[in-house]
Amino acid sequence: MSLHATHRDAGQVTVVDLSGRITLGDGSALLRKTIRGLLEDQRRKILLNLADVDYIDSSGIGELVSGFTAVKNQSGDLKLLHLTKKVKDLLQITKLYTVFDVFTDEGAALRSFS
Amino acid sequence: MALTTKHLEMTLETQVESVNLAEEMCLRVAEAAGFGEDDCYRIGMSVREGVINAFHYGNQERPEKKIHLAVDLTADKMIIHVLDEGIGFKLSDVPDPLAEENLLSTSGRGIFLMRAFMDEFDVVPGKTGGAEIVMSKKLPAPGSASPNGRGGQNATPQQEA
């Protein structure tokens, strides 16, 4: 299953709803394109909703980190919402769970940007 | 009683699609061997990472080079070999992705994930001159739960052309 991405604005925050797999190839490329596109539109508060992402490989992890760094470099914030168990486990064993701000409630995530 | 080893192998092109192909093939073998859902996920991820490593680092994404994948199913474990046609590397030269200075690196986690997800993992010089990743997962005990409802320790994998 390839990756699908749609985004919606919630005030100053852009919520990106992702579904599918973030893996080497199209999945990682779409995530990169989506985040870079938002930065070009001056959208620097980004919440990635990963509720329907059930698989990420090392390429996808690299793309998440790349996006996080790119947003930070423009004085923005990139946060994560609704991790599936597999994705949460992956971020924990790679010690990235403590790098990202991770939320289980969208309202709380949105408030954290202000 | 004689213990038999089932063996299959395939030669893959150095292209992104080979990563999915290798993962799917090994998942079929793992399911037929009786591995449960969690172990299948770990095996599939490890195969992905092994082939990504061969594709990107070993073969430098050069299409004239091949990736050689082999799977052995012995009486007690599933062994996976991923061989590239690069110049090889030493495990000791691979940076630790958990080190503070590497946490925000955008690459370099594949070896770590294979080590984490498989029971045994090593990199040896391959017959092509490249690196050969050898990793294995112990088979589930006979009669243990098989959430996918298929196979068991003596299941036979589908032979690939």
Describe the structure.
The complex is a heterodimer of chains A (114) and B (161). Chain A is an alpha/beta fold and 114 residues long. Chain A contains four helices and five strands, in the order ββαβαβαβα. Chain B has a single domain (6-138), classed as Histidine kinase-like ATPase, C-terminal domain (Heat Shock Protein 90), CATH 3.30.565.10. Chain B contains three helices and five strands, in the order βααββαββ. In chain B, β2 and β3 form a beta hairpin. Classes of the chains: A alpha/beta (114), B alpha+beta (161). The A-B interface holds A 23-25, 57-59, 61-63, 65-66, 68-69, 86, 90, 93-96, 99 and B 16, 19, 41, 45, 48-49, 52, 97-98, 103-107, 109-110, 112-113, 116.
CATH superfamily of chain A: STAS domain
Which secondary-structure class do the elements of chain A indicate?
alpha/beta
Number of strands of chain A: 5
* Backbone CA Rg of chain A: 13 Å
- Number of helix segments of chain A? 4
**Biggest sheet of chain A: strands, sense, closure?**
5 strands, mixed
Bulk shape of chain B: globular
State the low-pLDDT regions of chain B, or none.
146-161
Q: What kind of sheet is the major sheet of chain B?
A: 5 strands, antiparallel
Name the CATH superfamily classification of chain B.
Histidine kinase-like ATPase, C-terminal domain
Work out the radius of gyration of chain B: 16 Å
CATH fold descriptor of chain A: Transcription Regulator spoIIAA
Arithmetic mean pLDDT of chain A: 97
Distance between the termini of chain A: 35 Å
Query: Numbering strands along the chain, what is their spatial order in the largest sheet of chain B?
Result: 1-2-3-5-4
Strand content of chain B: 15-25%
Report the CATH topology name of chain B. Heat Shock Protein 90
How much helical structure, as a percent, in the residues of chain A?
A: 40-55%
The pair of chains with the biggest contact is:
A-B, 20 and 19 residues
Instruction: Give the CATH level 1 class of chain B.
Output: Alpha Beta
